[in-house]
Write a structure and sequence with these properties.
Two copies of one chain form a homodimer. Chain A is mainly alpha-helical. The first copy, chain A, is elongated and about 70 Å long. Chain A has nine helices and two strands. Helices cover 58% and strands 5% of the residues of chain A. In chain A, strands 1-2 form a two-stranded antiparallel sheet. At the A-B interface, helix 1, helix 2, helix 6, helix 7 and helix 8 of A face helix 1, helix 2, helix 6, helix 7 and helix 8 of B. Chain A binds a DNA duplex through residues 2, 4-6, 25, 27-29, 38, 40-41, 43-44, 46-47, 50, 57-65.
Chain lengths: 173, 173
Amino acid sequence: MRMNQGVEWAVHACLHLAWVGPDTPVTAARLAEFNDLPPAYLNKQLQALARAGIVSSTPGPRGGFALARPAEHITMLDVVEAIEGATPAFVCTEIRQRGPLPASKRSARNPCEIASVMSRAEAAWRHELESETIADVADDVASKLPGVPQGVRRWFNPASTAVRVRTGRADTA
Amino acid sequence: MRMNQGVEWAVHACLHLAWVGPDTPVTAARLAEFNDLPPAYLNKQLQALARAGIVSSTPGPRGGFALARPAEHITMLDVVEAIEGATPAFVCTEIRQRGPLPASKRSARNPCEIASVMSRAEAAWRHELESETIADVADDVASKLPGVPQGVRRWFNPASTAVRVRTGRADTA
DNA sequence: GATTTCCTACTCGGATACGGTGTGTCCGAGTGAAACTGG
DNA sequence: CCAGTTTCACTCGGACACACCGTATCCGAGTAGGAAATC
């Protein structure tokens, strides 16, 4: 019942990509460097995000990853399911239908009560994750630590920093 | 992010023990037979329940397991945590404090927003499991399939069935 | 016949193997940009 | 100077090992009950 390490990395990566913006792809290696993570393994997680349609990947030089849609439309649940898979944590194997006193076919039409409880609990969990988007998290961070978004943007895009920031064109927006 | 198989078995076992009653211990082998499960492995799960104080174990002949307290005071969360452990699924490794642009010490005083969201989701999950007791589940089953509790009781305690039921003393209560 | 002792069978409990999944790494296919060449 | 071509470095993508935890099993410690021996 432990969540994959990759989920944490993936969410952080999404946050960074949200701040960098959709127009400048960021390589997996650079994302990994920012958090001191194994590059190849983070790349694996990013591939999962790409398969899920959360990020878009562009190969070749000047390639990398970028958010495939606005951060407001990416929920935490989307990211978690992209990495973990959508299979529920509790799987009912219907052991009540086995053994010397099995539940009758008619009884088995009703869902197993235990599975129902577990399903309700997971639904509550999913609901909570679904109600929070990457944009929400990004805003929360920005409100508490206003310097972070610009700092991240600058680090990931030094060229644009040199140009845009000195000309005061975009970053202050 | 998959829950242990043993959780399902443990909950079923608790249900059976609740129906059998606290006075007649049931062996792990017999509980396993009822659902066609590997006896030794179910025994392991029951040991975990015993360590958590959910069931009481008595060794020796005529020994076995029984609920240590009324089913109304055993929540689903108790059983899940007894098997799975109480460590949360998501563990924040604070990668934001690593890398070339680490979060400052002052920033780190605020909890990581990602961890907060995950924590809220797990709290909702736990709350849902905490609000449902073994007695609740047992009642739900009994209301939909009234014959089940007595059937289970009889199968696990044929001696008392021969005596008590024929004399009509306890089982109809 | 009652009591004490011993023994045996039975139960849980923890220590011990095995397999699957998460973790981590590597190299190849594809691509875009830059450099070079010829007009 | 400009257009076309070639080369090349760079990126993702999937295939390949390693390790840890869940799964499954076994045997030993402890106990209660009964049988046997004794008074």
